[in-house]
Amino acid sequence: MIERYTRAPMKQIWSMQNQYQSWLDVEIAIDEAWNKLGLIPDADLAAIQQKAKFDPDEIARLEAITHHDVVAFTRDVSESLGPEKRWIHYGVTSTDVVDTAQGLRLKEADAVLREDLNTLLATIKAQALKYKNTVMMGRTHGVQAEPTTFGLKLARWYSELKRDIDRFNHSAAGVEAGKISGAVGTFANIDPAVEEYVCHKLGLRAQEIASQVLPRDLHAEYLATLALIATSLENFATEIRSLQRSEIHEVEEHFNAGQKGSSAMPHKRNPIGSENICGLARTMRGLITPAYENVTLWHERDISHSSAERIILPESTTLLDYMLHRFNNILKNLDVFPDRMKANMNITHGLIYSQRVMLKLINTGLSREAAYDLVQPLTAQSWEQQTSFKQLVEASPEITARLSPADIEDAFDYHYHLRHVDDIYRRVGLEE
Known about the structure:
This protein is 62% helix and 5% strand.
């Protein structure tokens, strides 16, 4: 992952240093398990625990000769040991170490992402409560429809992110797994108790059955979930982008002192953070395809998945960490303009209340079709002449014969549309 989109925690997790350290952690845990089973003497285990180390530069040199990274690693580690080196990698195959260590690093990455998700959820909740009753236009097809509140938009995001977190927790549990079952997963040369010990020590789930590798449908589900979370962020960011347009200008990404919006136009304030989120979401979705294609391997294993995963696992977790962190800052510092929201409600001359007028007419006994046909020509006249819809309603003898001035006044009161906001908030779990 390029530095521009990499935050320090993920950079450390996916570093070569941490890769080799996680491999060593697995190797030592395997030897500890063998010791408990009576194979490895206490003295040999103690020597391994105290002296085993690695040198990334030496591993790179050896890999250039062996063309096998795990062999290069085990040979380098062995050089730090005495006769006890015979127990390094005993009874296991490369993928026992690699897949289990990868599960360990994914667990570390998931801890970062889980914190990111919970931080964003808290920010959305705070903003949803703050703007709970901030009235604004609801739009369908990009066209003004009926009143809503900015808080209700945020409440939808809150609900969506809660679903994302549920999906994340499920898929993360899938990949936070290990397997120490040998060359084709039969435990032929290793006791199942070794796998149980190693996974328990490292805080991983022991996969119930594996071939030489962990099943890759686990990782496909995980990548798809990360991409779906990124798509949720794109959904939220697209709304901000739309509401920041000059013609609407109901919200705006905070513009810092000294910030520049354009090299050519000094007046520009662009939603660049939200646009960044949208672009990265496209990249995230692109990582799903290799994850799905990695599910199908030849027989008990091949390594066609390996090269792809060296890219897509670090890239997806690193990108999502960056996206969650950046979008949280965007939303936390978002400038919101309630007065502009109210002003925009008036630009259609009251047409947004047409359904209320129609329903009131229906309540007097008029058929739906008759009420619709009575109201619609007035909406067309209001729009074409850019005149008050309410005044046209008040001047219509067919309507005033059925609706009193109080009825008409009530039909044009936006508070009616917000009377169930508290109910919706309770359903979403957004009580103050």
